[in-house]
TrEMBL record:
Protein name in the entry: Divalent metal cation transporter MntH
Function in brief: H(+)-stimulated, divalent metal cation uptake system.
Source species: Aquirufa regiilacus
Subcellular location(s) of the protein: Cell membrane; Membrane
Keyword Transmembrane helix: yes
NCBIfam families in alphabetical order: nramp, Nramp_1, PRK00701.1
Membrane topology: Multi-pass membrane protein
Keyword field: Cell membrane, Ion transport, Membrane, Symport, Transmembrane, Transmembrane helix, Transport
Cited Pfam families: Nramp
Family assignment from sequence similarity: Belongs to the NRAMP family.
Length: 439
């Protein structure tokens, strides 16, 4: 393996902040999995952030269960791509941003960095809007005030970041448990028809033929497969203190993949639940116009005949927004250091990202009113989808290169499958651009 790529574990940027987490010598499957579990959940929360809520609600209310297949396919894409990301980090000791910085000229690296920063800003925009909406729904705080309150996230995340990486992982998993319990209840009271749900998991040609379905479907793709999560996962998987030899790296890849797959399965359940809830509560009750989080909150209790559905919906939304904030903070640090070797104080880095998100959210709400918040939320997810190819293509290229990966290079079937996924993503994005600008 090239010495240029075989960097030591200690050179990873996150190790400057977090001590490496020990893993057991030997031990059984569950003991090893317990040591490696965590980074996958950190990544998975980005796949269920408030941006997903807007696209999933829109898809379920307007088209019933049809777009469930898009969530399933997107989740399978995510499992593959996150596996490649963690494998890159473990096998080379370099995260995706560092790998791009090593391999590309400075102009290309700067371009990719800017593109990735736009994706992080779009994701943070969804978190700002989602958290502000949740505060408004739960405590009747004006959305403009809620948007400004989200600045406090900066200091909250920094406090927990200084307590260590395991503390952050524990908080994320606790909030994920809250979201899962909330939607478990929602599914229980919604009583969806199982046969219709299963039918929705089968892809339909109408998704491609109908530009409205396609727009929401690509928004779901952008919300489900998050470009900055590929950079994040390739870095935080290195917080485990495995030895730098082939045997230990093979073990690390194995258990990190289990961690990632289990975590993304939870994300699939949450995303599917949001769409199923919207379909069962609104689409099949003649309320196909409900694609707004606020409308969904107001109508859930009357439609489902319970007083808890709306409250738990908003609680899950708030937990979702706070969870995704953690990953956005870490991803921003990783890409800035990896692409251009620029190090900022964590609070300054976080503050800049949050202000970039707050400004458009604040002015859209102020100038055009709260009714346009949901459109901004869906647009943020389409923007994420547009950035995806710029992260996926380098990732597939690097992990398919034997000189870089050594014995951990992708097998031929995985290489072809990964390039096919990249082609699908790129084709859908090009088609959507054509619909937007030339239709």
């Amino acid at each position: 393996m090239s010495q240029h790529w075989r960097k030591s574990h200690q050179e990873n940027s996150l190790s400057e902040v977090f001590a490496s987490i020990p893993i057991p010598k030997g031990g059984g499957f569950w003991r090893n999995l317990r040591a490696f579990i965590g980074p996958g959940f950190m990544v998975a929360v980005g796949y269920m952030d408030p941006g997903n809520w807007a696209t999933d609600l829109a898809g379920g209310a307007q088209f019933g269960y049809t777009l469930l297949s898009v969530i399933l396919i997107s989740s399978l894409f995510a499992i593959l791509l996150q596996h490649l990301a963690l494998k890159l980090g473990v096998a080379t000791g370099r995260d995706l941003a560092q790998a791009c910085g090593d391999s590309f000229s400075k102009p290309v690296a700067y371009f990719l960095w800017i593109i990735c920063e736009l994706a992080i800003a779009a994701c943070d925009l969804a978190e700002v809007i989602g958290s502000a909406l949740a505060l408004h729904l739960l405590f009747n705080i004006p959305i403009l005030a809620g948007i400004l309150i989200t600045i406090l996230d900066v200091f909250l995340i920094l406090y927990f970041q200084n307590r260590g990486f395991r503390v952050l992982e524990s908080i994320v998993m606790a909030l994920l448990a809250v979201i899962t319990l909330c939607f478990g209840y929602e599914m229980w009271v919604a009583e969806p028809v199982v046969s219709q749900v299963l039918h929705g998991l089968v892809p339909s040609t109408s998704i491609i033929m109908d530009e409205h379905q396609l727009y929401v479907a690509i928004g779901i793709l952008g919300a489900t497969v998050m470009p900055h999560n590929l950079y994040l996962h390739s870095s935080i998987v290195q917080t485990r203190a495995f030895e730098q030899n082939d045997i230990d790296r093979t073990k690390a890849i194995k258990y990190a993949t289990w961690d990632s797959t289990i975590s993304l399965s939870f994300a699939f359940f949450i995303n599917a639940s949001i769409l199923i809830l919207a379909a069962a509560a609104f689409h099949w009750n003649g309320r196909k116009d409900v694609a707004d989080i606020q409308d969904a909150f107001l109508l859930l209790d009357p439609v489902m005949g319970t007083k808890w559905a709306s409250i738990l919906f908003a609680v899950a939304l708030l937990a979702s927004g706070q969870n995704a904030t953690v990953t956005g903070t870490l991803a921003g640090q990783i890409v800035m250091e990896g692409f251009i070797d620029l190090k900022l104080k964590p609070y300054l880095r976080r503050l800049i990202t949050r202000l970039i998100a707050i400004v458009p959210a604040f002015f859209v709400t102020w100038l055009w009113g709260e009714s346009h918040i949901n459109e901004l939320l869906i647009l943020s997810q389409v923007i994420l989808s547009m950035q995806l190819s710029f992260a996926v293509i380098p990732l597939v290229w690097f992990t398919s290169d034997a000189k870089r990966m050594g014995k951990f290079v992708n097998p031929t079937w995985m290489t072809w499958f990964a390039w096919s996924v990249s082609a699908i993503i790129l084709s859908l994005n090009c088609y959507l651009l054509g619909q937007i600008f030339f239709a």
